[in-house]
Design a protein that fits this description.
The complex is a heterodimer of chains A (588) and B (150).
Chain A lengths: L4 E2 L2 E2 L3 H23 L4 H12 L9 H6 L1 H17 L3 H38 L2 H15 L4 H10 L5 H32 L5 H32 L6 H19 L3 H15 L1 H29 L9 H26 L4 H6 L9 H14 L3 E3 L2 E2 H30 L9 H6 L3 H4 L7 E2 L4 H10 L4 E5 L5 E6 H4 L6 H6 L2 H4 L7 E2 L4 H11 L3 E5 L11 E6 H39 L1
Parallel strand pairs in A: 5-6, 8-9
Antiparallel strand pairs in A: 1-2, 3-4, 6-7, 9-10
Helix pairs in contact in A: 1-2, 1-12, 2-12, 4-10, 4-11, 4-12, 5-6, 5-8, 5-13, 6-8, 7-8, 7-16, 8-9, 8-15, 9-10, 9-11, 10-11, 10-12, 11-12, 13-16, 15-16
Chain B lengths: L6 E7 L6 H16 L3 H14 L3 E3 L2 E2 L2 E4 L6 E11 L10 E10 L3 H15 L2 H9 L3 H9 L4
Parallel strand pairs in B: 1-5, 3-6, 4-6
Antiparallel strand pairs in B: 2-3, 5-6
Helix pairs in contact in B: 1-2
The chains are: A mainly alpha (588), B alpha/beta (150).
C-alpha cells in the first residue's frame, strides 16, 4: 500500500491502528455481550473476529492476517510463558504420570479415530487410498492438538482451581508437543505416500530440533532472565525485561525453526521453579499486560476463519472430524485417567475441558497446506487446500463449543470460582450485601452513662446517632469518647448530641462495595454509614446500616478462606477417595 | 486547658434573671456579641440542646453548652444568680445559682470536650463554687475560674 498523505498526516499507518482499535474495542464489547449470556469471553472475541474478517465484513483480510503474523507469534509466546508459570515442579512430581497417560490417551485416541474416519471418507470420495491415508494422518495429527489459549482463558476468567484445573493446564500445555510430533511424523508419512517427501529419519530430526531445541532455548532464557532480574532488579523495569526476553525467545525460535509456545513455556517453567517468589510478581505483571494482546489474538483467529468456496462434500469430513475428535478426547481422557487412577473430576470431566482447538491447529493446517499444497486431489483442489478448509471449519465449530465445555467441566467439578482473589470477591458485592444492619444506634438524647453501657456491651467502634424516624443525624466513635472518659462531672453534662460528629460521607446499599471501600480509603474512614437514596424533599435519609472497615475486611477474608479451604478440601477428598479405591483394587 | 483564652470579664454577670429562658437569652446575647454571631441562632441551638436533657447537673450548677456552625473560636459566659433559678430542671431538683455557658465551633470537638472537662473539674470543688457565689466583682469570678493557669 502506497503512503497516503493529508496535509502533514501520513495515513499509511492509520488502517493498522484502526484494525487494532476495531479488534480491541469490538472484542471487548463482544466479550461483554457473551459474558451476559454466560458464555466465555473468548467466544465473544472470536465472534467479533468472524464479523470483521473473511466470513463477515472483510475489514480484516487474509493479507492483514499475514501482515500481523508476527503479532500472533508474540501472543502465542506470551500465552506459552504464562502457561509455563502455572507448571510448578511439585505438580509434575505429584501428577506427572497421570498427566502423561491422559495426554497420550486423549491425543492418540483423537488421532486414531479422526485419522481413520476422515481417511476412509476421503478414500471413498476420491477413490484414492494414498490420498485418503495422507489426509487421515494429517487430520488425525491436527485433531490431537488442544488450544491452550482459549482453554486457559476460560480457567482464568472463571477463577478455577482444583485437580481438574491443574490437569487441564498441564495437558493443554504439553498437548502441543504431542500434536507437533504427530504432525511432523504425519506430514512426513503423508508426503512419502503422495510421492516426494523427507525420509522418516529426516522428519524425526526436524521434530527433535523443533521440540527439544525449543525446550533448550526456553530453559536457557529462563536462567538468563532470572540472573538478570536478581542482579538488576527494579520493579518498574520488570515488565520491560520480561517482555523483552519473551520477544527474544520468540524471534530466536522462529529463526531456528523451533516451536514458539514450547520455548516460552519452558522459560516460564524454569522461572517459576527456580525463583518462585521473585517470579510471582513478574507473572502477575505479564498477565495483566496480556489482556489486550489476547483480545487482538482471538479476534484475528475469528477473522482468519473463511468458509466461502468450500465444496459441500467437505462438510462430511468436518462432521466426522468434530464427532470423532470429541469422542477421542473424551474416551482417551477417561481411559488415561482410569489407568493411572486419577481423581474423579479428571476422569469424569477432563475430556470436556479438552475440546478447544485454535491457533495451533490452524497453524498446523497452514503448514500442511505448504507441505502438501502441490498434491492435487482433484482438478482445482489440492490436498493442502482441503486440509485448510476443513480445519478452519472445525476450528470455528470447536472454538465456539470448546470454551463453554471447559466452563461446564470446571463447574461440574465444582472448581469454578475457587481461585478467587480478594479484589474479585469485593467486585461481586454491593454495600447492602455486607453492611451491618444490626449496628447499635443511639438517639441524640442518650446520656453519656447510657452510651458507655452500650459500648461495654457491644464490640463495634462506631455508633450512628439517629432521629425518631431513623434519619441519620451523626456518628459517635470510641476515639471521640476518649476525651470524655474519667471525669464523672463531665459525664453528667453530656448526651449523644454533644458527642456526635457530622457524617463525613455515606453510601447507599446499591453502591458497589469496591467503590465504597475506595472512598473510605481516600478519606481514611473506618466506617461508612449506609442510608436510603437521597430524598427529594431534602429531609435527612433514613439509616439502613453501617459499613465498617474491620468487619468488612474480616468478612471478605473469611469468605476467601472458605473458598480456598473448599478447594483444598475437595482436592484432599479426591485424593483420599482415590487412595481408598486404590487400596480396594489391590485387595481385590 | 487555658480558660483565659475563652472567658472575658465582660462575659461574667453577677446578677441575673431568675428564669432559665431569660438567663439563657442573656448569656447567648453576651457570647454572640463576643463571637460576632447571630444571638437568635445561638439561643435556638442552646434551647434545642436543653430539650434533649437539662444541663442542670446538681449542687446549684448548670453548664449549658452547644456546638455551633459559623463561629471560629470557643467562648464562655458565666451568670451568678444568688436567688436561684427554680425552673432550670436540675438533676437534684434544686434551684441553680451558677450558670456557665459554653459554645464551641462545630468542627472543634476536642476543644469543646476539654472546655467542658476543665469547667467541670473546677466547679466540682465546693470551695470554688462557694467562692464564686460570694464574689462581688466579675474579676473575682474570673480569677477563680482561671486560677492556677498563670
Amino acid at each position: 500500500m502506497a503512503p497516503v498523505f493529508i496535509g502533514e498526516v501520513e495515513l499509511f499507518h492509520f488502517p493498522v491502528l484502526l484494525l487494532f482499535g476495531f479488534a480491541l474495542f469490538g472484542g471487548a464489547m463482544g466479550a461483554r455481550f457473551f459474558q451476559k449470556l454466560r458464555i466465555p469471553q473468548v467466544v465473544g472475541y472470536i465472534a467479533i473476529g468472524l464479523l470483521l474478517g473473511e466470513s463477515g465484513f472483510r475489514l480484516i483480510t487474509q493479507g492483514d492476517i499475514v501482515h500481523f503474523r508476527q503479532f500472533n507469534y508474540f501472543a502465542l509466546g506470551i500465552i506459552g510463558f504464562l502457561v509455563g508459570g502455572e507448571l510448578k515442579g511439585e505438580i509434575f512430581k505429584k501428577y506427572g504420570k497421570q498427566f502423561m497417560a491422559i495426554l497420550l490417551g486423549e491425543g492418540l485416541t483423537a488421532f486414531m479415530l479422526v485419522g481413520l474416519s476422515t481417511g476412509l471418507f476421503v478414500y471413498f470420495v476420491m477413490g484414492n487410498a494414498s490420498v485418503g491415508l495422507a489426509a487421515g494422518i494429517v487430520f488425525g495429527a491436527i485433531a490431537s492438538a488442544t488450544d491452550p489459549a482459549s482453554t486457559i482463558d476460560v480457567l482464568w476468567e472463571y477463577r478455577s482451581r482444583g485437580v481438574l484445573t491443574t490437569g487441564l493446564i498441564a495437558i493443554v500445555a504439553l498437548d502441543d508437543a504431542l500434536a507437533m510430533t504427530l504432525y511432523g511424523l504425519g506430514t512426513s508419512a503423508a508426503g512419502m505416500l503422495m510421492g516426494n517427501a523427507d525420509s522418516l529419519t529426516d522428519a524425526l530430526g526436524k521434530i527433535g530440533i523443533e521440540l527439544f531445541g525449543a525446550i533448550g532455548l526456553g530453559i536457557a532464557a529462563g536462567f538468563t532472565l532470572n540472573f538478570v532480574l536478581r542482579r538488576l532488579y527494579q520493579p518498574d523495569k520488570t515488565l520491560a525485561l520480561a517482555i523483552g526476553s519473551i520477544l527474544l525467545v520468540i524471534a530466536t525460535a522462529i529463526i531456528l525453526g523451533m516451536d514458539i509456545i514450547l520455548a516460552t513455556m519452558a522459560m516460564g517453567v524454569v522461572l517459576i521453579n527456580i525463583a518462585p517468589r521473585r517470579s510471582k510478581a513478574l507473572f502477575e505483571i505479564v498477565r495483566s499486560f496480556s489482556a489486550p494482546i489476547y483480545v487482538i489474538f482471538f479476534v484475528f483467529v475469528g477473522a482468519r476463519l473463511g468458509l466461502s468456496n468450500m465444496p459441500a462434500w467437505m462438510w462430511g469430513i468436518v462432521g466426522l472430524y468434530v464427532f470423532f475428535r470429541t469422542a477421542g478426547k473424551m474416551a482417551g481422557t477417561y481411559f488415561g485417567a482410569r489407568i493411572t487412577d486419577a481423581a474423579a473430576p479428571m476422569r469424569k470431566y477432563g475430556g470436556l475441558g479438552l475440546f478447544a482447538q485454535g491457533g495451533v491447529a490452524v497453524g498446523l493446517s497452514i503448514m500442511a497446506s505448504q507441505h502438501l499444497g502441490e498434491h492435487q486431489i482433484s482438478k482445482d483442489l489440492s490436498l493442502g487446500d482441503m486440509i485448510i478448509f476443513c480445519v478452519t471449519a472445525t476450528t470455528l465449530i470447536v472454538q465456539v463449543i470448546g470454551p463453554p465445555m471447559v466452563k461446564l467441566a470446571i463447574r461440574l467439578a465444582g472448581e469454578s470460582g475457587m481461585n478467587i482473589t480478594r479484589e474479585d470477591l469485593i467486585a461481586t458485592y454491593k454495600v447492602g450485601d455486607i453492611m451491618n444492619t444490626q449496628a447499635t444506634c443511639l438517639t441524640q438524647s442518650d446520656p453519656f452513662a447510657h452510651i458507655m453501657k452500650v459500648i461495654s456491651e457491644t464490640d463495634t467502634m462506631t455508633y450512628p446517632v439517629v432521629g425518631d424516624d431513623r434519619s441519620l443525624l451523626g456518628i459517635i466513635t470510641i476515639q471521640q469518647l476518649k476525651s470524655g472518659l474519667g471525669n464523672q462531672g463531665l459525664a453528667d453534662m453530656l448526651v449523644a448530641y454533644d458527642l456526635m460528629q457530622p457524617v463525613a460521607d455515606q453510601a447507599t446499599a446499591e453502591m458497589p462495595l469496591g467503590e465504597a471501600l475506595d472512598r473510605m480509603r481516600q478519606q481514611e474512614l473506618e466506617y461508612l454509614p449506609v442510608v436510603e437514596p437521597a430524598r427529594a424533599d431534602g429531609e435527612k435519609p433514613k439509616f439502613l446500616g453501617l459499613l465498617e472497615l474491620r468487619r468488612t475486611q474480616r468478612a471478605i477474608s473469611r469468605e476467601l478462606l472458605r473458598r480456598q479451604e473448599a478447594a483444598i478440601d475437595r482436592e484432599q477428598a479426591n485424593r483420599i477417595r482415590h487412595n481408598i479405591r486404590k487400596r480396594r483394587a489391590r485387595k481385590a | 486547658m487555658n480558660l483565659k483564652n475563652y472567658l472575658a470579664e465582660k462575659n461574667i454577670l453577677l446578677s441575673c434573671k431568675v428564669s432559665k429562658a431569660k438567663v439563657l437569652e442573656e448569656l447567648s446575647d453576651l457570647v454572640a456579641e463576643s463571637l460576632d454571631t447571630d444571638p437568635g441562632k445561638l439561643l435556638d441551638a442552646v434551647k434545642r440542646r436543653e430539650e434533649l436533657m437539662s444541663t442542670g447537673i446538681g449542687n446549684g450548677l448548670a453548664v449549658p453548652h452547644v456546638r455551633l456552625d459559623g463561629i471560629k473560636k470557643a467562648a464562655i459566659a458565666v451568670a451568678v444568680c444568688k436567688q436561684g433559678i427554680a425552673d432550670y430542671k436540675s438533676m437534684d431538683s434544686l434551684p441553680v445559682n451558677l450558670v456557665v455557658f459554653i459554645v464551641a465551633p462545630q468542627g472543634q470537638h476536642e476543644t469543646y470536650i476539654r472546655l467542658l472537662a476543665a469547667v467541670a473539674e473546677i466547679l466540682q470543688q465546693n470551695e470554688s463554687r462557694e467562692a464564686i457565689l460570694a464574689a462581688t466583682e466579675p474579676g473575682e469570678v474570673y480569677d477563680i475560674l482561671t486560677i492556677g493557669e498563670n
